[in-house]
TrEMBL record:
Residues 110-298 form the D-isomer specific 2-hydroxyacid dehydrogenase NAD-binding domain. Keywords: NAD, Oxidoreductase. Residues 5-329 form the D-isomer specific 2-hydroxyacid dehydrogenase catalytic domain. Transmembrane segments: none annotated. Coiled coil: none annotated. SUPFAM superfamilies: Formate/glycerate dehydrogenase catalytic domain-like, NAD(P)-binding Rossmann-fold domains. This is D-2-hydroxyacid dehydrogenase. It comes from Limosilactobacillus balticus.
Amino acid sequence: MTKILLTSVRDDEQAAIKDYAQKNNIEIITTPKLIDEAVDLTTDVDGLVIQQRSKLPEDIYAKLRANGLKQIATRTAGFDMINIKEANANGLTVTNVPAYSPRSVAEFALMQIFRLLRKSYRFDHQVAQNDYRWFSDEQSVEIHTATIGIIGVGRIGGTLAKLLKALGATVLGYDTNPRTDLDGIVQFVPKDELLKRADIVSLHVDLNPTSKGLLTTKDFVLMKPTAGLVNASRGSVVNTADLVDALKKGTIAAAALDTFEGEETVAATNRREKGLDDQPLVKELHEMDNVILTPHIAFFTNLAVKNMVDISLDDVMTILNGGKSPHEITL
């Protein structure tokens, strides 16, 4: 019987995992550990599915090859934690789940856009201090009067664009490959123009050498001082030090960040006692009353979790059966 190991497994994934094992007559072993700490469990399995934000140790690829593994599937869209060249050099095919549920992240981004337009971050802080007043500079913007700029108009960005258009917003888009199927929904413009015109800028790019540090000080100064930023893509797309500076100076008004630099040691951890002293920029963001931080949970919906499990396991089975996955990553 085919045996597959899943690492970093959460309780909410277990139902989908059990269902897949029963339907496909395979054995699935699960562990809450990262693959870094669970490599010994791969000595007696046929396939491997991981999920983590921290980089895999460089020596792990040779260990997996020695244990007879042929592939690594990550049940995430991002794959920057894996050294693809080193994996391939050790005969390991790497796959990801590029579209587990574009709607999940798009809906989350839409929620954050509403929160920034309605300045709920200000009221959240005030009410937490038993201050129930409102002030002239807290007057909000109705979404059908707003211009929203989407950087990265792929599966998620395109889904968000359709939701925004249905609400009457003006939608600007910037992408290296503008989509003709979104004619009448998105007006594609250069990045600088988008930054200058948008009331909210929402980021939906993957992390690659061209997108790392995509927004820095020179970009923030182009934005309206009343504008907000939503990042539900990858933390390193934004230069955090420059963003903190822009928020402090009032270069831009606010930010809603589901991903941020330093999150690999913060997201999914309990920091009530330890605090954030080891991540000073995250600490600064956390203390600002014009920042909304969430712990990388834009994807976290019922459908997305099931799809992440099912699609990653489908890829493992395809490769083990000698096929080629459409989600194979090569460099």
